[in-house]
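Regression check, DGJ case 721:
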Amino acid sequence: MTKRTLLSIFFCSTFLALWAQTISIATNNTQMVLQVNSQQRLCQTYLGERLSEQTNLEQLYMPLVGLSSSCIQGLEVYPVMGTEDYYEPTFEIRHADGNPTSVLKYVNHTTDGNLTTIHLRDEVYPVEVTLYYKVFPEEDIIQQWTEITHHEKGKVYLGRYASSMLYLEATNYYLTEFTSDWAKEMQIQSQELKFGKKVLDSRLGARANFMAQPFFEVGIGSPVSEDEGTVLMGTLGWTGNFRFTFEVDNQRVLRVISGINHDASTYLLKKDDTFRTADFYFTLSNKGVGEGSRRFQRWMMNHQLHKAKDDRMTLLNNWENTYFDFDEEKLVALFGEAKDLGVDLFLLDDGWFGNKYPRKDDRAGLGDWQVTQSKLPNGIPYLVRKAKENGVAFGIWIEPEMVNPKSELAEKHPEWLIQLPSRDTYYFRHQMVLDLCNPEVQDFVFGVVDNLMQENPEIRFMKWDCNSPITNIYSPYLKENQGNLYVDYVRGLYNVLDRVKEKYPDLYMMMCSGGGGRSDVRGLNYFTEFWCSDNTDPIERIFIQWGYSHFMPAKAMCAHVTEWNRQTSIKFRVDVAFQGKLGFDIGLRNLSDEDRQYCRQAIKEYNRLKDVVWSPEFYRLVSPYEGQHCVVQRVTPDKSHSLVFAYDINPRYSEMLLPARLKGLDAEAKYRVKEICLMPGRQSWLSCNDKVYTGDYLMKVGIKVTSYNKLDSHIIEITKE
Ligand code: DGJ
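Current build output:
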C-alpha cells in the first residue's frame, strides 16, 4: 500500500469516526442527543422524554438547515453569526484581521460522571469553544455553559456569547414570562409564540431584574398548565443583564437562546484568556409547571442555595417602622420588642452611617460606612451587645456597590464612580454605582463587609441592597474597552462575594435590590435568601409569591409582615408571610394585645413546622389568577406531614366553591386534618377540622378550605396518623 492510500484510509476512518459521534446527555426523565454531522458540525438531534436504552440514537433525524447550496445537515448546537444558519446565532466573534465569523467544528468530547465536555475549534483561526453540560439526574435539571478562548495576536471581540441554544419541535408554543417593576415583581403573563422572535431581557446592569425576571416557561404544543403538558422551564444564573430569545423559524422549529445580554457588551477578549458564559439551567417537564417547579425547588435546596441545609432566622426589621428616624434608645427598645415577639434576630436597616453627610434620608451618606456618631454614639458593638442581652442576634443593612454624590467617598474617589465624562449625570434614587470592574473598588466593597465583621464578629446577618441600575454607563477603569463593563461589573461582584463567602461562611445574607430587583439563582449561591418585593400588601404578595414559587424554594423567599394594606387583618398578613422565610417589619406597639398574641403564637408554630414550610414538595392548588382564592400546599418528602395555606381575597356573591383536592400524599395512609394558627380564643369552623381522612380521600374528594369571607385565611396541618 502506498503512503498516499494509507493516508487516505486514515483520514477517511477519522472522518467516519467523527461523523458517527453521538453524544447523549440525560437526566432520569429527559434526554438530549447531539450528533456530529458529515461536515463535522455539532447538531442537536433530540430533546425530549428519556428514550429507552434499546433506542438506536444514530437513527435520529437531522434536518437540513440554510439555503440550498451551502446548507448544513442538522440544527447546530452553537451556531455562529455569518455561517449557513440565517437565524439568530449564539456566538459572534470578530477576529483581529476583521473577519467577522468562525466555523466551529467538533474536535472531541469527554464524559466524566454528570459532566459532558465538548470541544469545538475553528480550523482557520486559533479559536476554541468548549460546551459544558452538567446533569442533575434526580432533579431533572440540565446546566449548560460555554468557554471561549483565542490565541490571536490582535484585538478579538465577542459580539455574542450565549450559554445555550435549544431546539424544540411542535405545532404551537406558548410562552409564560414573569414581568416586573418596583412592588410588582413576578407578574405572570402568557402568549402564543408565532413566527419570528420574542426577546426577554434586562439591560440594567445592577438591579438587573427590576423590570423583567430571569425565568421563562414554554408550553410545547399546548399552553402551560399546572399538572399536564410538556413545558420547558429555564433560568439564567447571572446577577446582571440576561437575554432569552425565542425564535420560531420557517420550519416552525422553536429556537431558544439563553445567555448574558450581549447588547452594549461587545467584549474585548484578551489572547489566551477564557471567557466563561453564565450558567443556563433548564428542565423539560411532561407533567406541567407544577412538576417543573418542584424540580427547580429541589435542585435549589440540594445544589444551589447557599446554606440550604442550615436553619434560617425569623427576624424583626426596623425599615418600615422607623425609616431613617431612629437612635440608640429607639433601637434598644425594638430589641425588646423582638424578644417579646419571639423572633431570632433584629435587622437594622438603612440610615446608620455617614458623619460628614449623615444618612438622614436617601440623598446623602451612601458610601461612608462609618456609624453616625450623633445618632449611635456607642457604635455598632453596643447595638450587637444590647441585642444579645435581649436574646436576639443582630443583623445589619449595607448597600456597598453604591454611592451618593454627597458622600466623602465620592469626593475622595471620583475615579471609582461609573459616570460618563463630559455629560450631565443621571441619578437614580440620588445615587451612583461604584465601578466594580476596578480591583481597588472590589477591595473597598469587600472591606465594607470585612470591617463590620472584624469589629463585630457576632453580626449574624447582612441585608445587601442594590437600589440603582447602572446609570451613566462609562467605567473610568476600562477606558476604551467599555463593551466589557456590564460583564466585568458582575464578575467584580462575584469576586467580592467569593471572598465574603470564603471568609465568613456562617454569615447569613439577604439579597435585596429595591425589592426583588435581584433574584437570580447564581446570586443565591452566595446569599441565603432574597427580598421578593417591597410590596408586602398580603394580597399582592399572594401573587408575587405564587410567581416566585415557580422556581424558588420557600426557604429563600423573605416574606415580612408589615403595615401595607391595613384593611387586612394581622392574621391574614402573617398567614401569607408564613409561606416564605418569615419576618416582621412593623411597629408592634401599634398592634392590639390579641394581634401581638397571634404573632407570637404564629412564630412558635412556624418554628415547629419549618421543615414542612421549607419542603420543596410544593403544590399550587387554586390559582389567584383564576378567581378570588388561592390555595397552596407543601408536603414533606416522606409524605408524613403537610401544610395547606388557603386565602379568600374578594369572593363573589354565591360563587361556586369547590373543595381543594390535595396532592403528593400517600393514598393508603390516614391523615388528621387540623386548622392551626387561629386567633386567640377562636375555634375553627372548617368542616374538615380535626377529622381523619385517607390520603386517597384528600386527593380525590378534597376538603373545603375556601369561603365567602373577604380576606380570610387558614393554615391547615395534615399529619399522618
Ligand atoms: C430598598 C429595600 O427594598 C428596602 O427593604 C429598604 O432596605 C430600603 N431599600 C432602604 O433604603
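Comparison notes: The longest helix spans residues 593-613. The chain has three domains: 3-298, 315-401+437-469+504-527, 617-720. No diff flagged against the previous build.
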